[in-house]
Specification:
411 residues, Rossmann fold, Alpha-Beta Plaits, four-stranded parallel β-sheet, 17 helices, 19% strand
Length: 411
Amino acid sequence: MTQSLPSLSLDQITSAAAAIAGQVMRTPFLYSPQLSQRTGAQIYVKYENMQVTNAFKERGALNKLLTLPQSACQSGVIAMSAGNHAQAVARHATRLGIPAVIVMPKATPHVKVDSTRRFGAQVVLAGETVEDAFAEAERLAKTHGYTWVHPFDDVNVIAGQGTIALEMLEDEPELDTLVIPVGGGGMVAGMAVAAKALKPQIEVIGVETELYPSMWNALKGQSRAAGGNTLAEGIAVKTPGTLTAQLVKQHVDDVVLVSETRIEKAINTYLTLQKTIAEGAGAAGLAAVLSDPARFQGKKVGLVLCGGNIDPRLLTSIMLRELVRDGNIMSIRCTIPDRPGLLALISGIIGDLGGNILEVSHQRMFLDVPAKGATLDVTIETRGAEHAKEIISSLEAEGITVTALGQGDHS
């Protein structure tokens, strides 16, 4: 006999909103003129990266903890997470005086482990993968009688995440579309239930990275492989929740996939236009709009910037890569005769045209360089793609062979 799944109603979500009020931030939901101009839609952004743990997960974790009986609070709770859910459970369990154990894979970045510990939880590092860590958490739960706080497949967690939609529609009732990142599906499921109950005609679109199309598979009956190294590790889930998948099928209009390059662009766009930090998962909604602007043209679109926990080194790399894509930084290889004066000639041409040389590497000894020749690799700051082309053309006009370096995927 198939076990029936619990249902989720608007009343449960409004009750969750009342329960967590004052204990999590009611984050701003603001119109963005610059994103609207860039996309052709009317873009509003829900800044969940402003929560204390910099992610939306606090809502569901807190709502779950508030429903626990006293016996469970005394025994303690356990969660398995490599990121935002871990910090959310740690923070609110500590606030409520509930012992918390968080199991994380051994490869979890130290910054996330340290942050979870600072919020007051006991951290157990176990296994090389999320699946290994989950198995250890299961063992600890059975051994010690801990209560599970699941990251997504729990009706109280889902109800807590659904409060995001209540706030968005209260602030902007005329929204046409919600675009929501999808991992295990807790946020999109809760928000879809709330939004469709309040405004049945609203369109709800989930977004996954192409590398982890688990909910896309569930919604469309496909079996596309999931796996790989993604910027959006917060939504890198191979198997969606059973309850969340059911709710998505009932209430979500579509799930779309976005490329890693588009996620990069969205992270950079949030930083440069909105002056706010988005992790890969947090930028997925904007990535979907940037990928298919015609679909959202003229619509009033609500995006959820669901998290801002990104490694600063990765953020710096993304910024530099976008400068390269836009032509503001270019690297070229000049193949030249090995004779005096050519380095000065090349630097003079670049300088006279307003280019700023950032780095130079002069090679004579490589075997793919002619015996009487040399290569000069030059990294240049430019005013953009057209300026870069002008510099290359001027070098070539002097008989210098120029090859652009590192020009990868610009899509």
